[in-house]
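Human: Note token order:
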Amino acid sequence: MPKKFIQRLLPDPRKIKGAGSLRIFGDLIHDPNYWHLNRRSASGAFAIGLFVAFVPLPMHMLIAAALAILTRVNLPLSVALVWITNPLTMGPFMYASYKVGAFLLQQPAQEFVFEFSLAWFSSGIMNVLPALMLGSTVIGSFAGVIGYLVIRGMWRHSVRSAWRARCEARRMHKSS
């Protein structure tokens, strides 16, 4: 069942509630509705977490937490999912986002050479930023929708299977 599987993967709520970065939300994070796991809250958390994971902005966890609170979905799941983009995966995700954005803007992909200087940051990043932001938004939206639909489908399948198993067990019990 997806609920039990997801609950095993989630971090301890006490650790998340005690996180210093989430203190800006005050008592809101102590609302039990943000910690409840059902089909709606899990699928919404997947949509938010996967979308925010692709947004090339700092403070992913805070953005995901704010959106989870705003939409009343599972807070720890949406915060945990942003970590699919980590220092190991960030480069390939950003490169793919840039390529998608450049394709959608119908502009040729530019040579990207990183220099650690203020001059490069002010000029170099501005050349790739429009394509990167567009690509990130498109890929993040696509990932969020796919995550939402997959979790909804898995949850529905799991509930139907459990229901059929209970009906079969009752029928077997009556026939014996």
In short: The longest helix spans residues 118-175. The CA atoms of residues 33 and 106 lie 44 Å apart.
